Amino acid sequence: MEEYRRRHAEVWPEMLAALRETGWHNYSLFLAPDGLLVGYFETEDLDAALAGMASRDVNARWQAEMAPFFESLDGTPDEGIAPLTEVFHLD
């Protein structure tokens, strides 16, 4: 988990640019001590944001680098995104 944290403290500038260019905003990752990883991001169009990143070479390279950190995934880590339904929000 320390290595995962380290890599995310040094995300490649071209990866950050690709995320912004494909509509990812307000993106955060949260890592629990037991390894549970929860990500949050906002986008106007989820399908377009995912497709945009899927078409980027930098994303393929990043996902290959991150794959060893994940267990029991079919495909790449970004293909394991499971949208959640908001059940409560406080402004």
TrEMBL record:
InterPro entries: Dimeric_a/b-barrel (IPR011008), Rham/fucose_mutarotase (IPR008000). Pfam families: rhaM. GO terms for biological process: rhamnose catabolic process. Signal peptide: none annotated. It comes from the Bacteria. GO terms for molecular function: racemase and epimerase activity, acting on carbohydrates and derivatives. This is L-rhamnose mutarotase.
